[in-house]
């Protein structure tokens, strides 16, 4: 669906985990080609976010996971067409051989290695809050080259990129 420039597109991010292991996607397409991210995607017209999470998981992994739990949101803003309102869900699943995926390669990453894999900076903050069982509402601003300029956690009123 075509969206006017600058308008936020609605998406879901689906974090699948089995204890200390996370089933993540090494993306073969942009945005974030070659990086390791949770699965997810855009909402369809008239679709609620939870249904989108279940659908996207089924499409990308073949897994039926109806027991998602909402954990937070990420709003991304840029002067390009990269403008998202992303709702984040998590589900506990059994550890299993990663299924094939048209979007890239699914692989298990241990939680101690989450900060070592190539992933968008915003995702590191999502994992941090998830592992501490803390709700979050992130806002991230990017420049025209999609370099992260600022990131704020709105519930705590805290700048996440301060040194």
Overview of the structural elements:
- The chain is mostly beta strands and 163 residues long.
- 15% of the residues lie in helices and 39% in strands.
- Strands 1, 2, 3, 4, 5, 6, 7, 8, 9 and 10 form a ten-stranded mixed β-sheet that branches.
- A hairpin with a 4-residue loop joins strand 9 and strand 10 (158-159).
- The mean pLDDT is 94.
The biggest sheet amounts to: 10 strands, mixed
Total strands: 10
Label the structural class.
mainly beta
Helix % is 10-25%
Q: Strand fraction band?
A: 35-45%
Distance between the termini: 39 Å
Q: Radius of gyration in whole Å, from Cα?
A: 15 Å
Q: Could you report the average pLDDT, rounded to the nearest whole number?
A: 94
**Spans where pLDDT lies below 50 across 5 or more residues:** none
SSE string, helix = H, strand = E? EEEEHEEEHEEE
Characterize the overall form. globular
- Quickly count the helices: 2
In short:
By secondary structure, the protein is mostly beta strands. Strands 1, 2, 3, 4, 5, 6, 7, 8, 9 and 10 form a 10-stranded mixed beta sheet that branches.
In terms of topology, how is this protein built?
Layout: E1 9-18, E2 21-27, E3 36-37, E4 39-42, H1 49-61, E5 69-77, E6 84-92, E7 104-110, H2 121-131, E8 136-142, E9 148-153, E10 158-159
